[in-house]
Amino acid sequence: MNRMLFWLTPLFLSAHLTNAQAPEPVFNYDEAKVGTYKLPNPLTSNTGKPVKTRADWENRRAELIQLFAENVYGQTPKQTIKLRFQTTAVDSSALNGLAIRKMVSIFFVDYPQVPSIDVLLYLPKSKKVAPVFLGLNFCGNHCVTTEADIPLSTRWMISGAVGEAAVNNRNGEPRATEKFRGMQARRWPIEMIIKRGYALATAYYGDIEPDHPQGWRSGIRSVLGDTTKADNWGAIGAWGWGMSRILDYLQTEPRIDSKRVITIGHSRIGKAAVWAGAQDDRFAAVISNESGEGGAALSRRWYGETVERINTSFPHWFCGRYKTYNKNVANLPVDQHELLALIAPRPLYVASANDDQWSDPKGEFLGAVNAEPVYRLYGKTGLGTATFPALNQSVGQTVRYHDRTGKHDVTDYDWEQYLRFADELVR
Ligand code: GTR
């Protein structure tokens, strides 16, 4: 279907041109048409100096974070925010006695108008202290499990991702209904995670910012940042910031090994997870599940989603300045392999799916390949290969990659790889 779209577009395009309208963007799914591009070198400083040592890299790392903040995601506010953690429920025998389940709300003491982040935490009873996967969810904590006693989120609810299950409230805003319960449980194999000795922490991404262009008005960006600036933070920056606030809470939780917090994210939340992991090195490892454009996929590679398209469809995700690269991606001072390199020397997993060509699996793979020199600086092998693997084959060392069969999703196959990755590398 994607290929069809590509072949149909020129017809569409010429019809439009005769009407003297702006050409429709063309999305490429043909490897032969990708063309050539030159990636910026992560190991060359802003002033052109080669980065040779780990100490050099630490300076370069700060430069790169700044470049991503100025040009892509916007500046993450630096100020420390007073947080209050309130446990609202504890079930010491959840999941048939396998887990302790806690619900904890994170309040922003000086900004009572900003909604809390409501964390759902499962802790394995088999361990006194456990490593944890931390990931935001797309449609509320009640979506990740069928358990009937998780309160339905009362916040704005994304409707595209969950179809007709959302109903409008009195103000015409979509809200969750009982139909949402467990709707994405398949993506969150909590029992499997718990049985392997890991905890799981999740929260609804819409708690931090509702995912639409006006969403910032009711989220954390309504009080932090500066909307007049071209490098004001976008929604992805806010979601990433929220992950760090959940980590702040996890550091206070005695049953959590806070040195082993693995951040995981799918798709747009994957973009946020990588940006969070890049900035906040308290995250011990990062997992990007089909994060695609603006995530693990190279921006300069013309394949699938483009910078222009993402900025047009989702104008609130990135900073204003990112839009100035819509038609000249080659001028971006960074590319996404450098974002992945910011995770080094920590373990990183980049995963694709072969029916998800929109995310550009090969571009995600090449993002990981081109982060290699930075892992080498730390004496680590990153991916250790530049050969695209066969389907359903996990490759690499400190950096891992797979291209799963199937569509844009998070499956048990993906989780099995992530659990093995965590067992082997996040010790
Ligand atoms: C798509 C978007 C992708 C990806 C995806 C998702 O519409 O083009 O970049 O983020 O949404 O989050 O599911």
UniProtKB/TrEMBL annotation:
What are the TM regions of this chain, as residue ranges?
none
The chain positions of domain 4-O-methyl-glucuronoyl methylesterase-like read 231-379
Which InterPro entries has this protein been placed in? Answer: AB_hydrolase_fold, GCE-like_dom
Q: Which UniProt keywords apply?
A: Hydrolase, Serine esterase, Signal
Domain of life according to the entry? Bacteria
Q: Where is the signal peptide?
A: 1-22
Q: Name one Pfam family in it.
A: GCE_fung
List where this protein forms a coiled coil.
none
Extract one GO molecular function annotation from the record: carboxylic ester hydrolase activity
* Protein name, as recorded: 4-O-methyl-glucuronoyl methylesterase-like domain-containing protein
Q: Which organism is it from?
A: Spirosoma endophyticum
